[in-house]
Design brief:
Helices cover 48% and strands 4% of the residues. It has 23 helices and six strands. Helix 8 packs antiparallel against helix 10.
């Protein structure tokens, strides 16, 4: 197989169906962009297809196995073989043939390709064809998705091939594009998407839950600018989210992660997933539920595999800050399991390597799907507290009149007040450190901590308990060796 980001070129057959609320649509089959985009439903289905890679378990597994497990906050766990297989990753000797690295590269580029097909096809359609769907909204969703997929690629791999059109066979010789050019395209896509997308208040959540909104575009833009250290731009994007009246913090932190808390007032973007028996399969490729629930629930006691176990270091971070609310909502202990599981099931618990499991992905027995891979817990991708802390960090790192340390503390303390912690009064580097600690505690188990430590240059110190992290060779994951080989060496490797 040639370079897999472009292996999809032949016949452009990537319009896979998806089935999350409004995404519950029929697969499109094998059609090309030249003959497919005829009706507004064709346009809608193409965007549905572009969404579908958000839920592919081979991508979502990389959210936690990199974002949590590569940090000091979690370990891979599972069987002895699983632990041994992932150990080189946790000690920062990243193997270029690690299957999770290849999954992330391939699934995200598949998403880019689908988004490109949607953008190209819809852009060429006559405006008069759209009676029910909104053409610009569909374009906005596809632009957001392309930006999202590319940002997930660049934080992991740095320079990556940049494609902004449906690829042709001539593109098979694409090489890596400098990361600043990729970021420029991400920014351009998100700015355009924000202009096209509707506010959450205009959505019918009974049918449109999970569809991308204007706030999602601006929230992701604030994240992107933070990674680029474009602090003033981050402030502007963050305040665009604050200007909307659709979002507020949920009073009880734990409620956010319950089934009843899906698409709540602080949710900006979720991967909508549900238990639909007709949509599950033994290969897990077309199930509608959250496969990661199966992977993370305790082994033996439940039908879970026990992966992604939080560490005592994360527990200590909560306890040192007196943060019992987020600790209990994030770290599942044997004491809680003993209450929720039957005595006979609890007695079967095995391989509890750290004493903790990720409670944000735990379902009590009555809530679990009979089809193990099909559990109905949404993936929370962007929440309002992230935008608060993005803004706080930007204000702390580049204080200006009206957007300085006072504002940084205000938004930091909004997040702390929700969990009944005292306000911070710090300044300077101490304020920045307080914001970073708050990010760790707020997003524990949500796949963000590793990337925060890498982007801020704190990884080498933070990750000492796991191994020697050398920024020059560890800040980026290796490009999958299979992709380098398939390209005949046109795709080059990151520093090793």
């Amino acid at each position: 197989m040639r370079l897999n980001i472009l292996g999809v070129i032949i016949a452009a057959t990537l319009f896979y169906g998806c089935s999350d609320d409004f995404l519950n649509k029929t697969k499109l089959g094998t059609l090309t962009t030249d003959n497919y985009f005829v009706t507004e439903n064709d346009a809608f289905q193409s965007v549905v297809a572009a969404y579908s890679d958000l839920k592919d378990y081979r991508y979502t597994v990389t959210i936690w196995c990199f974002g949590d497990v590569l940090s000091e906050d979690a370990t891979y766990s599972g069987s002895d073989d699983d632990v041994q297989t992932f150990a080189p990753m946790e000690s920062y000797n990243y193997p270029a043939d690690n299957p999770r690295i290849l999954d992330r590269w391939r699934i995200l580029f598949r998403g880019v390709n689908k988004a490109n097909q949607a953008i190209d096809g819809i852009s060429k359609m006559d405006d008069t064809l759209f009676k029910i769907q909104n053409k610009n909204r569909l374009l906005g969703e596809a632009l957001f998705l392309r930006a999202y997929y590319y940002h997930e690629l660049v934080i992991a791999f740095g320079d990556v091939p940049l494609m902004t059109k449906t690829p042709t066979i001539d593109d098979i010789r694409l090489t890596r594009t400098p990361v600043d050019q990729v970021y420029a395209q991400i920014e351009k896509d998100l700015i355009a998407a924000a202009d096209f997308l509707p506010a959450k208040s205009t959505l019918n959540l009974a049918t449109d839950a999970g569809r991308i909104t204007k706030a999602a575009a601006n929230a992701l833009l604030s994240r992107v600018y933070l990674y680029e250290k474009k602090y003033d731009d981050c402030k502007i994007a963050s305040k665009a989210v604050f200007a909307e009246t659709d979002y507020s913090l949920v009073s009880n932190y734990a409620d956010v992660f319950k089934l009843s808390g899906e698409h709540c007032s602080e949710s900006i973007l979720e991967i909508t997933q549900y238990d639909s028996p007709s949509g599950a399969s033994v290969t897990y490729l077309d199930n509608n539920g959250n496969f990661q629930v199966l992977l993370m629930m305790p082994s033996g006691t439940t039908y879970g595999y026990g992966y992604n176990q939080p560490t005592a270091l994360l527990a200590k971070a909560y306890m040192s800050e007196g943060d019992s609310i987020r600790k209990h909502a994030t770290l599942l202990t044997e004491d809680s399991l003993r209450v929720w599981e039957s005595a006979s099931d609890f007695a079967k618990l095995v391989r509890n390597r750290t004493g903790y499991y990720n409670e944000k992905f735990y379902l009590k027995p009555a809530q679990r799907s009979l089809l193990r891979s099909n559990n109905a817990t949404n993936f929370r991708l962007i929440r309002l507290p992230e935008v608060y802390l993005n803004y706080a960090e930007a204000c702390a790192m580049h204080p200006t009149s009206g957007d300085g340390e006072d504002e940084a503390r205000t938004y930091l303390n909004k997040v702390r007040t929700r969990v009944h912690l005292a306000d911070k009064t710090s300044t300077g580097i101490a304020l920045f450190d307080d914001i970073m600690l708050e990010r760790r505690l707020e997003f524990g188990g949500e796949g963000r901590h590793y990337w925060d430590m890498v982007r801020t240059g704190k990884a080498a110190t933070a990750f000492v308990p796991k191994g020697t992290f050398i920024p020059a060779t560890c800040n980026l994951l290796p490009v999958p060796q299979a992709e380098i080989d398939a390209s005949g060496g046109l795709i080059t490797q990151n520093p090793r």
